Predict the 3D structure of the following.
Amino acid sequence: MTDPSFPAPSPPPDIYTLFPGRKSQIDALLPILTHPTLPAPPTIFLSGLPGTGKTTLLKCVLKDVSNMAWVNCVERFTERLVFEGILRDWGVGRRCDGIAEFVGVVKEMETEEKRILVFDKAERLRDMSSTLLPALMRLPELVRFPLTIILITHLTWPDFRSRIGSLDPSYTVHFPSYTKSETLAILAKDCPPTEDVQFFVSFVEILYEVFSKPCRDVRELRYLVALWFPKYVEPVLNGKVTRQQTSKLFGFIQPHIKNALHSVYLRDVSSHEYQKTSVKSNHVYDVDLPYYTKFLLIAAFLASYNPPRLDVRFFSKGDVGSRKKKGGRRARVSSEGGKMRQQLLGPKAFPIERLLAIFYSILENSLESSIDIYQEIASLVSLRLLVRVTTPDRLDGVKCKCNVGLEFVNAVAKSVKFDVGKYLFDFV
Amino acid sequence: MTIHQANTALFESVSEGTFLVLPKTTRASSTPSVKRSKQKSPKNDSLLRECEGFQRLYGGQEPEALCRQRFRCYKQRWRAIEETINRVLVKHNSQAIDNIVDFVNNAYASIQCSAQSLVLPFREVPTGLIFAGINIPDQELLFSHVTAKLTQNTCHSVAILPSRECLTLKTTVKSMIEQFLDMRPTVAEDQMENNNQNGNLSSYQPRIKAPNYDMQILADWHRERNSRGHLVAIIPDFECFDPIVIQDLINICSEYQGTLPFVFIFGVATSIEALHQSLPRAVLSLLRMEKFKLQHSNDCINAIVEELLLKPEIESHEGCVGLKLALEPYELLINSYQLHTLSVGGFVRALKYAVMDYYYSNPLSILWDMYAADRNDQMQDILEPEHIIDIRLLKSFKRYIEAHAKTHPDHVARLLLNDTVVKAWLSECFQRIVRYQIRYHAALCCVLELQKALNSPSFSRSKRVLHMMALQGGFVETEYMSAIMLLLRKRSILETRQYLEGCLAALQQTNSSSDACRLECAAIQKLMEDLNEFVDSDPDSSESDEADSYTLKHERKRALSLASGSRTTNVSKRLKPIVEHVKEGTTQAFLKRVSDFLKEFLSDATKCYKNLPLHEVVYYSNAARLKKAFHPQPRAVIQTALGQTRHYLKCDCCPTTTKGDDTISHTLQDSSIAYRLYLECGRMINLYDWFVAFGAIVEKETEGSSLDRTDIQARFIKSIAELQFLGFIKPTTRKTDHAVRLTWGTV
């Protein structure tokens, strides 16, 4: 790229500082895309994990480029939306239903200018018609003007190959994950203008140390930094400690961070709520269900986590002879090491009849079977506490899975004074 | 059995099958009652149509005007009840609704104002999560209120996206855009468009027609509209929504967030877990979520019960609001709410049915309404002889007669013989009922005051529960009541005074109640005077107060164990001697006076409604009908239908089942024969054996001469097809020529 006959346009000086750790990518993209005459490769493939700066960087690079069409494939979810969006960006407002029509329109465009076509979240293109992607990849060969097609995706090229065939992109730029120092450099850029950078960086380092295990996503880390920094700096502003007493500051912030570690990504306390009060995220299962629905849920849980062959043992009433057997079982379970415990394997599907049988057996008082019970099962399914495994159009032999965890069921069972543990194979 | 009960029994059958009888001209004659009345006049049909199926009772002899009146009363009363319910619901959720509206109004403002404290690296879409309880259908009302509020005062645009209309992303976006664009333009916009001359809807449409699910349309429209209102997308049933669709929708909206001020409102039925389950973290991070908790449906039900079932029905002669339910229907409604649905909507539906049935099946129902509307004179004119007979057949009337036979033989004789006396007696009875209801409500309020005074969570019961206890009768003798009465006697003097003040306020809350409880008010005032005197004269009382509070804990424990029912006899034995021998002029003696007064008042005011003459007219008691309508038992119904054909088909040739002989009669209906044979089979049924057995029974019909085999086969196939349709058998591939039995054993 340093050929003197093609003087590269001087990059905006700040673009390197704007994207720490992305120098090679900028160098690869900036000259070929922004030069007005330099021919660019017909297809460019940008890949890298989410949150590695692909879209942001490309947007910054193409900021001043005219004749650029940007397609977000999530938003433009049908072919018609894709093509009409592109044509609108290129100044051709017309209806366009399919790839054939689009190619026709583009072929007739009387222009010599270099054009760029970007598909963000390009993996979605694979879900549209099967000819779309191969046709788009061939498009630069068909048109009169120099055209560059850029695909941005978090997948790798082999994931596209099944759709496109052997036509490889002419140019691939990979965006690797950020290293620690790069991440810190990015996070340091969020430093509020009024704050001392050194102080901010020290906080960011602490935060990174704590959170780097569960979360390397730069976006999430930036969010966390923005969320916790005011809390961190609060004692300083109150005059309790000075900026130099890092360990003391850490002591103040530690309980908050500990709390936040449980709910990384979950956002159960939003940024706004967090500002208003120091709400603690609490995992209280305060779903209030009707009395019998609670038992239905418990029965579903038991049906999902107990093997059917043991139903007789757990749920037959007035069976005294099974005492001895129980002891023998226990020994066997512990010798198995518990690796294949159903609690670890997840819920199993069960037929609805089994659920009802267990339900009627765990109820203390007898209950007339009426339409209510079936209604409650249906409403549990619609609340996604039960998941129907069979297709909805199948009316007989319905099978379900229980979609709640042990903790939830324990809370529910406690509210109706029922001991789940007594009936669970894994815990007996 | 009274006449009207006998009459309505015609509409009931052994089965619980539901028949929809439309009041059409052609169909009307098929309903049994009309057939009986022998008056198949077109007039009757028009009456049926007009009154939505209300029929003339007394075998069609009831005057048409009265039938119409019953229908009118039903409409009127239900309207009043519905208004009350809506008012209660709106009142209960108004705080939450206001919060939501505030949230939407400030959704974007808050970002700017708080900029100095926290700068987020990216913009989040403001999202309100409404935790509205597990009853999704109940929430429609709420969301419509929210929508109305949002569009009314401010110029926000609202799109409601229920999951049933949003199966794919395309339909979702389309429906959202359509709802946003269909908003009525604001006044300012109207003027602007007028100035533009060509300013119709096309002004914000692009030159080419974009597909109607293109977000660009929305962006253009918003630019043209140039308004400060936000775009509020409401998803009322988050759990039912396809997670993929909602993810994409959020992605798209957040993409446009720079230009379009989106606000999401999700109705979440369970907990925030649901969100975490269906949204990946990349999508979650696009939302700035704020939670709103709605009032629990329990509170709503309590308020509805209080307003409609507890409060005296007749206040200030404006007609009835609410319906008095007898014990069984009340129990049914409350149980089905508490144990099965937690649905306010379901409760209201059942209540509506009860109101309808009250007027539909009871010819005496109009009396109460006429009394309420202060039209006693008219009431005496319209009563037919049948009404009077009906009244005399009421159980409570009989009881009244028996009770007064000795003391007032003349009065009783006149009641039994003279119709006009009965008519006059009616309003007297109703007056008594009204007074009873007022006092009853006041008494429950007093019990609540007592709870407040005791301030102990183990003794707090809602009015709903108290009402249930009181309906069961013997309210004062219940363990709960005796326990809290006992506790009352352990309170300090000052607390007792506060309590008495509270009681007085409760009794005097309305004019009518202070009127009805005049004696009690006076008694309380006397008690309070004595109390003041007592406190003034005895400076030591404060000390004894301390001693009291010292023993209080201990006593409460005792009372608790009394309430829980264990060791009841022991405790009461031990307590009794202490209680009875109190010295005059001490705190104890005074507290005993208070509790004695209270006991007397409560036992009078909360006596069972069944003791009132004519309570059948006012209290709706047909729980069986409600149960049949709202809690049908399909399997039991089918089994009765097949097993007890005699009752089900009202057929005399079918054998009675009570005899105990197991032979299957050939006179039974084919499906029933097949069903009985089925009952004798195991899990797998050999079709051929079944067929042979079936044929053997059916052949008895012709007494010797054999039936055509193909005939029998056809009938057999027909009946087992029916059984398969009813879910008794299923074809199987496991064994040739066999069917699998589906129901459990001989249940």
